[in-house]
Amino acid sequence: MATEKQDISLAICGHAWHGKSTLLGKVVAESGMATARELEEARRVAAEGRDASLVFAQLVFRSKDVHVQASEAARGITILPSMVRFDFPDHRVTVIDTPGQETYANNRFFGMFQADAALLVVDVADGPAPVTHQVVRILKGFEIPVHGCVFTKMDRVGFEEQPFLERKEELQRIFDEAGVIHDRCTFIPTSAYAPGRDLHEPGEGISRFSRIGWYDGPTVRDYLGQLTFERIRPPQAAPLRLVIHGSEVYDNVPGIGKACTALVETGTLLPEQTLVFEPLSAEKGHAVTAKVRSVQLTKGHIATPGIPVERGVPRQLVGIALRGFSEKESLRELFKGRGAVVGTEDAPPRVARLVLVEMTVFDPDTILSQGDQWTVHAHVDRVAMEIERVEAKRANESDVWAPTSEQALAPGEWGRVRLRCVTRPVALEEASAIPALSKFVVRKEQKAVAYGRCVQIIE
Fold it and tell me: How far apart are CA 295 and CA 27, in angstroms?
């Protein structure tokens, strides 16, 4: 069984092609988690794709499509969040590599929600890009602090200090403007791979510095080893709540059968518990259930096997073997295009069709009006919702609510709003009961525009 260590989930996020997966893959390689044979195989595959830097990106991809030349994975595009677990004497860090392409925005939301903190990756030469700003807004909406910022491709600016300092100041300003917590943010200059460099040569800032003498902070590897996190403790009396994304369910795991990867949000997960899945149960009209056969820490990279544990505790990412699933339908089909919140028979998750929320618009170019439909990202699920009525407004989060007849929210305004699900119900909790599962981010026309929390489930 796993020893008692602090488990920290860290989302690595940023714009496409800024080097997130390559950076993480290089940390894997320099940590001895990839064999020479794996590197050579990755080199062969990468040679059929875009460039040699894909060697490292493909060390962390879960997709088998890396061998298909025309696939996104073979071209270095992260589709699904991939997890790599790093073990240290006092803690474990599960790094979640999230997609940077706008096409896979839903998967980016799901990967980031699972994180305790974020590590933002920015190309030092190109600077913050559209998805960089999107990520910052998601961090604010889900109240995830940014604990690190890695500037990649320092070779493109000659490993000079000035571009690093300018980007650091720029990112700090962006964090402040969005209201994102960053007081403990560590800024690290790196160059995981540069054209012409031997694949086995250590990168700059990954596990050592050789070209950057002006920086006195940690390497990425040291940063992970020193990472500590004082998280907000979930309510002690809160019932079991697991969060599962549709891409994290499996029908035929060898020797196990049906299984899933889940985030334990509150409560304690134990073998032999009977789980209830929502909003699947509400949609089916009867309880969708399964029993827990066993629990283990998530596998992550191939060299970090799952570790059996006696129980799953809050904020752990765990793998769950299931038995006695009540539905004959494939889990892949059952969960397709959705997420789920899981509880127990005596304390099932809440399900909502009409909710009262407190929300604000943080996009300066967006007005949300009564009757408009947009996508609400709540934990790892997403659902179409619309404003049924704006009941009250206030100028800022600390102001007093005042009744209003205006049926729209302008940028910067806070509103007490009735939201109705348009297509199907959503599993959601009230902020007074389980705050983390009450939060949501609104996406409209391919960008995050608002965020809020559920204060009452009306129906």
Answer: 27
Is the same domain home to 356 and 340? no
Asked if residue 144 and residue 68 are part of one domain, the reply reads yes
pTM of the full predicted structure?
0.81
What is the rounded distance in angstroms from the CA atom of residue 295 to the CA atom of residue 276? 17
Q: Are 22 and 152 in the same domain?
A: yes
β-partners of residue 13 are 120
User: Does residue 92 contact residue 8 with C-beta atoms inside 8 Å?
Assistant: yes
Count the residues in the chain. 459
Residue that terminates a domain, selected from 200, 226, 252: 226
Please check whether residues 210 and 257 belong to one and the same domain: no
Instruction: Using the predicted structure, report yes or no on whether residue 397 has a pLDDT greater than 50.
Output: yes
Residue 48 to residue 59: CA distance in whole angstroms: 16
Distance CA 63, CA 75 (A): 12
Strand pairing report for 307-308 and 439-444: unpaired
pLDDT tens, residue by residue, 186-207: 999 999 887 777 777 888 999 9
Q: Is the alpha carbon torsion for 207, 208, 213, 218 positive or negative?
A: positive
- Given a contact cutoff of 8 angstroms between Cβ atoms, the answer to whether 451 and 360 are in contact is yes
Q: How far apart are CA 448 and CA 173, in angstroms?
A: 19
User: Under a CB-based contact definition with an 8 Å cutoff, are residues 241 and 343 in contact?
Assistant: yes
Amino acid symbol at 9 = S
In tens, the pLDDT along 2-32 reads: 557 788 888 888 877 677 888 888 888 888 8
Structure-token pair, residue 292? 């827990």
pLDDT tier at 101, thresholds 50, 70, 90: very low
Q: Tally Cβ neighbours within 10 Å of residue 405.
A: 5
Say whether both 383 and 448 belong to one domain.
yes
